[in-house]
Amino acid sequence: MPNLFSANADAFTKIFNIKNSGENGYLSRQRIERAKKIMAPFVLRRKKKQVLKELPGKTIKVEMCTATKLQRDLYESILDESRKSLLADAASAALAETAKATAKAKPKTK
């Protein structure tokens, strides 16, 4: 089968040799469509339904292992940064909510 297209190697080279040759997008799309039509019989497409019945059941296996010191330190630093970020976001949201409630509660005087 590898020799199937060898007789038309120049045609394939021309189809796939899309460089900045000044062609507009329409001609490039024509080349792509032509190449798709030529190769369509050789492309195997299967739908999920067809593959699904052939697959074995999903198995989950959890294996525990200990982290190295470097991994533990990195994990701890990421957790600390996440906690600080979440606390800062919560504090600023609470301040904004308090300011909004205070502004609503104050009667406007002229």
Number of DSSP helical runs: 4
The total of beta strands comes to 0
Name the poorly predicted regions. none
Largest sheet geometry: none
Radius of gyration: 32 Å
Overall helicity: 55-70%
Distance between the termini: 90 Å
H/E element order: HHHH
**Shape category:** elongated
Which percent range describes the beta-strand content?
under 5%
Overall mean pLDDT stands at 80
Class derived from helix and strand content: mainly alpha
Question: Can you walk me through this structure?
Answer:
By secondary structure, this protein is mainly α. The protein has 4 helices and no strands. The mean pLDDT is 80.
In short:
The protein has 110 residues and is mainly alpha-helical. It has helices at 9-16, 25-39, 48-52, 69-105.
Annotation keywords:
110 residues; 4 helices; mainly alpha; 0% strand; single chain
